[in-house]
Amino acid sequence: MKLGSLNEALTPILVLAICVIWAMVDSGRAVQGIDSALRLMTPLLLACLAGLYSERSGVFDIGLEGKMLMAAFSAATVAYLTGSAWIGLLAGIAGSMALSLIHGLASITFRGNQLISGVAINFLASGLTVLLGIKIFQLGGRTPSLEGAARFQPIELPLAETLRGVPVIGDLYSNLLSGHSILVYIALLLVPLTWWVLNRTRFGLRLRAVGENPASVDTAGVSVTRLRHAAIAICGVLCGIAGAYLATSLSAGFVKEMTAGRGFIALAALIFAKWRPWSALFATFLFGLLEAIANQYPNLDLGFITIPSMFMNALPYILTVIILAGFVGRAIPPRAGGEPYVKER
Amino acid sequence: MAEPAQHLGGRSATAAPAAIELTGISKAFGPVQANKDIDLRVERGTIHGIIGENGAGKSTLMSILYGFYKPDSGTIEVNGQPLSITDSMTAIRAGIGMVFQHFKLVQNFTVLENIILGAEDGRLLRPALAKARGVLRRLAEEYQLNVDPDERIEELSVGHQQRVEILKALYRQADILILDEPTGVLTPAEADHLFRILEGLKAEGKTIILITHKLREIMEITDNVSVMRRGEMVASVRTAETSPEELAELMVGRKVLLNVEKGPASPGAPVLEVRGLKMVDDEGVERLRGIDFDIRAGEILGIAGVSGNGQTQLLELLGGYPEKGSTVSGTIHMNGEPLDVTGTRSDARTRRKRGIGHVPEDRQTEGLIMDFTAWENIAFGYHDKPEYQRGWLMDNDAIRRDAQKYMEDFDCRPRNCHLAARNFSGGNQQKLVVAREIERNPDLLLIGQPTRGVDIGAIEFIHKRIVELRDAGKAILLVSVELDEILSLSDRIAVMFDGRIMGERLPSETTTGELGLLMAGITDTDRHDPAEGIPPEHQYVETTPEERV
């Protein structure tokens, strides 16, 4: 990982500072809070990486939200019917991939407008999940609660128990890192993996090239269409995991509109991260942290003033607006982003 | 793809197989027939020029050869084997490499990354990068193709970017190299270097196809030349057995005058007097470092220079729209009256009212609105003229009448003022802009790159109109990167380098060589003292008496 400029180091420093200050002010809740921040970060991180693959290939994807929602619904439904979280995960990925395919057909094969296709996917998912939910379960769009093997259970990392006594390091390891669902670890591992794929493999080189200048890829004899479809498929898989995590790990079942804008927050984080995997980790962790703080302190009492819970809950969205308004310095998106590729001399 | 041995054996022993043999190639885009029944034979180890006006179908033909388009009919043979080139990969495998007019490079990639893109040999990059580094070093020595492999493309000059494109083709072991208008973006020195590289490649037995519309390049470097006109191949000849005049005639289908016919200038009173003009852009870079010159009525002042040395800034500033965020100082007088340089009355509209017409360098982004019709475009900048108003409304009929008349005067085709600007060819678009400005009879015409990307017929026409305007006693400031154009049109030549005027020359008393040196910032130290310390006005005062000849 390379932290080229101060700008790139800012988010990690900010995130670390928040954690340290929190631990100093209120150490009891801080460990619990940071622990929950990790869990809240996971769907954002997965969606953010999903968007990263898509957008680095030059296809804007505002349909992350819809894909996650679709995946959450299919994962919860299938997990409930089969009693297996893993089969649910596969179903979630399938649901999200189906929408990815629509997006790819519309915006790559038929060169439609990527934003419009994304909006359509969001509407489709929002309506379809509720419709199917009511039809199948008659619970007003919810799925029944998931129990046991239908949910991803926390797993203990090796040595977590033995290290529990060791001060600081042991504490952090067994209380913070250990005891999450397998999907959390998958999400974390995807960060270095994505970095490696982008920077060290042929596929990554071509992916970055097609997002910057598709003509360079085309004239090199490589199919632009196939590359972009591949990128979109990866995006679908990651959104699928994100949605399944929401419904079968973070919560116990699907609730109408349960993504609650996480797809859009992930997009904001992607811009904040300047389309880079390591930065995406820190950006999404920052959002997770804010959400965790809001959960831990519904009414934050600063002594002279009490911040109402509504404001605390709105923090991640306020940050999103600030980021999207461009207060984070210049973020240069992939140059060919948003443009369907048309051959020309 | 066919087996090679079969076909090599089947060929008659008398003729060695050509590198490329095209037979009966046709290609239509909708109703437009871009290529009509084209035959072309390119011998191995030669440099073969393909020349023709814009829109003659040269690029289409080469794109077919590179697998970018599929021909409607016809056959392609490469090294004697018939080949159906369905995509660029097939072309690359057959040993064909192409350097496009607009480079196909990824700007934020390094040179190495661009070279290996699509030719990585494996799933991981590391071995490919190492291999490319070695090959690059060898190619650099062999052909003087030096580029820093770790530099990002956006940091490279255009000339170096072009080298990367050539290296890309050579890395893929191209035997046949197609270059589409390679010198359009190069300085004369860079173009010379390119030609030396091409000679070196030819000596190695490579075949080179050079697409251009510059006759001089064809005469200088090619062995054979094919001429295209309106989608047809009209002639293929040995370069040594032809002449520029003959080629030009073949290209346009009639005799053209390569030199502009113009009588001596009879300059009158100064129209534009520029003194100490400076401009610093928003990044703090000094773009103009004190420009002084006069233009008198009835004379053409040509400003030569490699693009990017301040000519654009000078034109925009005079035209009334300096770059945003720039700071400007200095004085400009128009017909003896001061022009507002920095204040509220320094805008383009006021400049037009003072009699300054402006043909911007880039017709597509500044001269025209491409989606608007020709008549709308012809009104721009003059739309508030009283004769175009009818009460509160615009008198569109009056504008259209004018547009139709101007288009007739300038032989703009198709003669339909309701077509969008983008539906006209490059040359006709330029005629629209030139017509708009010249027909309004300005006292001073600023004209930038009047014939960039314009075919010979239109060049001749535009040149003639510029000279007519001069003979009508108007002042003209001509900025062009084409030295030939500057030399044949100007009554006086000023050379710009790095925001300064390096010197002035009379076209009759200078050479391309001398101007080239000035364009590179080298002043003649024999005649002047070391150039650095001398304010520009002293450098050209010396030539002033000669101008009065």
UniProtKB/TrEMBL annotation, chain B:
GO molecular function, one term: ATP binding
ABC transporter domain location: 20-255, 272-523
Key words of the record: ATP-binding, Nucleotide-binding, Plasmid
InterPro entries: AAA+_ATPase, ABC_carbohydrate_import_ATPase, ABC_transporter-like_ATP-bd, ABC_transporter-like_CS, P-loop_NTPase
Domain of life: Bacteria
Organism: Paracoccus albicereus
PROSITE patterns for the chain: ABC_TRANSPORTER_1 (PS00211), ABC_TRANSPORTER_2 (PS50893)
Name by which UniProt lists this protein: ABC transporter ATP-binding protein
UniProt-annotated stretches for the region Disordered: 329-352
